[in-house]
Amino acid sequence: MKGLILSGGHGTKLRPITYSQQKQLIPVANKPILFYAIEDVIEAGIKDVGIIVGPNRKDVMEAVNNAYFDAEISFIEQEAPLGIAHAVKISEDFIGDEPFVVYLGDNILKGGIMKYVKRFKEGDMDASILLTTHENPSLFGCAELNEDGSIKRLIEKPKKPPSNLILVGIYVFRPSIFKAVKNIKPSWRNELEITDAIQYLIDNNLKVDSDIVSGWWKDTGRPEDILEANHLVLDELKPYNEGILEDGAKISGRVAIEEGTIIKKSVIKGPVVIGANCMIGPNTYIGPYTSIGNSCEIINGEIESSIVMSGTKINCNKKIIDSIIGKNVKICDKEKMPKGYRFIIGDSSQVEL
At residue 85, does pLDDT exceed 90? Predict the structure, then answer.
């Protein structure tokens, strides 16, 4: 069995962060979102993995190649984000005649995919999809079931959803899916939809199975989704301290601190993860559900329920909440008069004062 992980797309809903980095490389609990998918696939026993890359492909390739994964990893270039089924179609040479998992690289699933892959291997289905309920199914691929629980039809982003069951971005296929992706037409979005390809299998009497995910699942396509995923992952954080706590530093709750980080006269209330070689404090409060990347400096003020990426320096004596702050950002107080707010803000940014 092989793995196919999608790490393309433009990430327009995550502007301006995604102007400078691929959305799947945004960190959740100090780990790129993409790495959760890779680890899940490897944990399921898959040692041959292809990653679909598009914009910022060099960043994705560098990040993956600089990490250690117990698998052979190849990169497959998709010239434009033309749909999941298109990504499957261009991967036929890589997949060959083996069954394979398709995993969207901006999805995180609690508990991984081991049991779903095992069930597929032991069965005779041509495709297996994962479903979960959602309060707004029109944003996703939606499933309608027959009375016996089998799949009746799948619809991509329906205006009038037939149910509240949506497709999780994880699929398992046999090579019969390649005939399907070659026989469907682009949707109104000009994409080859994976829902149409799976519907082709159903309409041609091939066996498509479904399962309901047992834990939480997050599609991290929007800033609020990334912050929620950060909350969910940090809820399971195992505390450790490889840094230095100076006099006056107070730690409570589950806090993970990497090597080379110094905490000075500050309060940290978990769950919090702090990367390597950071300087925290003095006079700083790091509140729950915050992830601080490597080589950050945070002095004065408070930060809570936020993601701060590597190399950022914050010294502003303010309270920052529910924020995603990119790499090598500087946030500081203006000491000279006249005081005011000075901005250098990129396209598609959002600022609240």
Answer: yes
pLDDT at position 341: 62
Please tell me whether the peptide bond between 16 and the residue prior to it is cis, using omega within 30 degrees of 0.
Answer: yes
Contacts of 198 (CB under 8 A, 6+ apart): 127, 129, 154, 171, 177, 180, 208
Cβ-Cβ contacts under 8 Å for 52 (sequence gap 6 or more): 4, 5, 6, 7, 8, 76, 77, 78, 87, 90, 91
- Nearest 5°: phi and psi at 146? -75, 170
Q: pLDDT tens digits for 162-175?
A: 788 888 889 999 99
Residue 6, helix vs strand vs coil? strand
**What is the Cα–Cα distance from 216 to 108, expressed in whole angstroms?**
8
> 3-class DSSP state for residue 321?
strand
Domains of the chain: 2-220 (3.90.550.10), 237-332 (2.160.10.10)
DSSP state of 25: G
Mean pLDDT score, 272-298: 95
- For residue 62, give the 3-state DSSP assignment: helix
The reported pTM is 0.88
The answer to whether 1 touches 85, Cβ cutoff 8 Å, is no
Angle in degrees, 0-180, between the axes of helices 33-43 and 57-65, rounded to the nearest 10: 50
Residue 168 corresponds to which tokens in the numbers above? 């999780």
CA-nearest of 62, 107, 28, 37 to 308 is: 28
